[in-house]
Design a protein that fits this description.
The protein has three domains: 183 residues, Up-down Bundle (Growth Hormone, Chain: A), CATH 1.20.1250; 56 residues; 222 residues, MFS general substrate transporter like domains (Growth Hormone, Chain: A, Up-down Bundle). The protein contains 19 helices and two strands. The longest helix has 32 residues. The chain is globular, with a radius of gyration of 22 Å. The protein starts with 10 loop residues before the first helix and ends in a 20-residue tail after the last helix. Pfam families: MFS_1 (PF07690).
Amino acid sequence: MTDEQSGWLSDKQRRRLTRIPSDRSIVATLASTGLIAAFMQTLVIPIVPHLPAYLDTSSSDAAWVLTATLVSAAISTPIAGRLGDMHGKRRILLLLLLMMTIGSIVCALSSTLVPMVVGRTLQGIGLGSISLGISILRDVLHRRSLGAAIALVSATLGIGGALGLPLSAIVAENFDYHYLFWLAALLSLGAAIAVLSIVPESTLRTGGHFDYVGSLGFAVGLVSLLLAVSKGSEWGWTSLTTLGLAVGSLVVFALWTLWELRVTDPLVDLRVASRPAVLLTNIASVAVGFAFFTTAAALPVLLEAPTGSGVGMGQSLLIASLCLMPSGLVMFFVSRPAARLSEAKGPKTSLVLGISIIAVTFVAGSLMLTEVWQVIAISTISGLGTGFAYAAMPTLIMKAVPPTETAAANGLNSVMRTLGSSAASAIVGVVLASSFVVVDGTTVPTLGAFQLVFVISAGVAIVGGVVATFIPRHDPRYDETASIPVQNP
């Protein structure tokens, strides 16, 4: 009779159960997972102008390839966070990575619009991996390693986008576009294998039942709001469709709020979410998301516009991507200094500093924008500010919520950043389309339009910075049952 048949563990099984992964390997795995999830956002940007031809559809319909990812990510992130709190964060993270892999394969096999949108929707669901990864860190890392790890994984949203864009451009310019999605499938599958092999399961669980009604209401309200914001310029801001979606979202969220306050196990604990530390951090997150997307939406247009317009810089997609890549590298290298600043002075200091850097950079940017080096400087320095802000927000959130609600709370914070990015996308699009010149049949925004974009973004950043200054330094601490860095007051 073997050891297994007699009920005894073999030496191999015993070693596996007692193997403890190092903090570095866990952080590296979750950071890599975040990078891959963020890569899904910028994956199709190089081929956007060609999507109507590739998919045999109109430009407006092809835009759903981008919109579907944005909407699905915003909806799924807090839902995945709640499920992670209830059933295990690693288990739900693996599910998200599996859906990302399936979505990538669907896109790789697609040549028409509908299956492509379905695949991109599944890819967008995987973006919840970042907030789940941050929550896993709180549960499994030693407290002395936690601050820097949170800062790094939080920054992967920006790092992955900045580094992934040149890679996507190289593949798109030299190979069939389907190879982009096969690459995405391999990366997401590799991430799932790494998580399964290295990341331990957290023993923290929250009880209760899943809030299906609240999840449905949240999804309907958020879809309506995001569509109104992201498609308003295309449909018309005063059109019945846009106004109907906007008003409908307000009504749905009002009813959803009443439900969440009365149900025993809500999707989002609004009483916790309304605490000053959580509420003000989430409001500031809107400004950070707005600023992050401003550079992503406006600067590539400026770099790639033809020089004959007197504004554009005539760079190729690949060169433009390389010009913006330092922003992601800066976010990577600033993660550890930002964590040290948070440990010494509190995460509120890091957040205010980061938003202040963004605001000053955008004010200066509104007076520049005439040379390639200036665009690189604006992108890089704003990336520095974003890195400080991204490092601070998860710690601020997790200091103010119970350990059993960290994934859901981080998911809601991610939604707020997405709302900011959606608002930036709409406003940047409207401003750049409002003042333009035509060069060889190509519409190019004027310098004044680009400057106005950065003036508006600077104003949003200033408001976010002011809000951040009111975040209280003393809040309930939930470090008795989980690892969380204790910040100095």
